[in-house]
Write the structure tokens for this entry.
Amino acid sequence: MDSVTTRRPSPVTDIVLVVLAIAGVAFFAVPLVGLLVRSPWSQLWDQLKDRATIDAAELSAVVSISAVALSTVFGFPIAWFLARSKARGLGLVRALVLIPMILPPVVGGIALFTGFGRNGVLGHPLDVVGISLPFTTGAAVVAATFVSAPFLIITVEAGLRANDLGLEDAAAAMGASRFAMLRTVTLPAIRPALIGGLALCWARALGEFGATITFAGNFQGRTQTLPLDIYQTLQTNPDGAVMLSVILLAIAVAIFIALRGRLRFG
Amino acid sequence: MHMATRASPCFAAIVMIAITPGCSSSHQSTSSSGGRTLTVLAASSLTEAFGALGRTFESTHSGTRVTFSFAGSDTLAAQILQGAPGDLFASASPKQMDTVVRLNKVAKSPQVFATNRLVLVTPGDNPARISSIEDLARPGIKIVLAAPGVPAGDYARQVFVKLGIYRAVTANVVSNELDDQSVLSKVRLGEADAGIVYVSDLSGGVEGEVHAVAIPNRSNVVATYEIAPLVDAPDETDALSFERLVLSSQGQATLHRYGFGDH
């Protein structure tokens, strides 16, 4: 044991790790620096008061927050069962709800058509009674939820698994209802994981592009979220697209910082 | 508390996810087995016709591989201005070609090589019972068009202006797609009631899936296609021979077969 603990780490290994880490950090930094350097700052105000930008920002807020709400309402119970239940076949359920994480989003969009589109498995009967989802804000919410909910589920499940079951058992032994136990014991204990899951889910919903443009289409004020607006702007006005990207980056970083503060001091 | 540190790697991932909204629609040309590669940036409406011309070119120019990047002409023009590598640019409208010409990105002046017209398409079962272009002004119809700024989208809007139904039709638009092929696929999937695409888009064996409604000549527009070699072309000889092929009687016959008109 002594020989292991006192052996000096090889300096070569240290140097390699440092060099690789610096290269890795540069890899992430270069594109962000590029955005800031290439930004036509003189266009900032024009882009901010552009009707399409305002519509897209509002829509992105509505769509991403709705997606987080739906992901929580349906995702939390899924995470709960995945972490707590001993039922057979849960592995299959986990694989099913996590598939959107590995699907290319455009494939997700096509899958949503085949499920909820006008000719879709569930969409067709709905269409017959006059409910049509594609090309609506609802479709954008569905697309964002489809791709972002797995992030909430996987994070909350991990939090629940790491959680000490003894407290829950004690609460149950003292006669606490399942709801009281959730509220007073489980939720406080997994709070960091829950906030992390919500943040990841929201970030993925905000950045969603492929499933949205496929399933919800691209229409200003209805389905054109910020990423779609940026992509369409890129077709004709690359400088404007860079400026919009910086705006989206600023929003994301601001909320990231706000949430991080909550996590640390909350 | 220790749970907080456990969650923080998740946060590190957030910025990455949040700032990667797009996904690439592009190509790229990897040259095969030491041979030359000719890269043609072409309007997406040329997908079928240029694919055929590329095979013809490869059969007569052994050692050269032709690769294509098909997208909306406006997208391609923006890519060229951003320095995208390519030997030739084929635009569905002089407007996007002019942008590239003005910034001195072409090696010689563009040549008109084809024309196209617009056609109205509905899903095969025509759920909204559309029988003429004027029907698109009926309230409640779900119409998909190419976005303004995309040649197919600009041309379609010109038709509606000519017919005096621009406001009524645009009120029915549910999506502004990034090129004509995306318009066609939303109609083929049966999700939109109608769309406007090029006549040439119907040559690729979609007759059974979509129902075409002709737009009369007096209200239709003529799309003019232009081609030009790019200044940064790595192999100008190949670029010029491909352009010659497109303009030759053989090339013109191929374009005709795919629904393009005379110029």
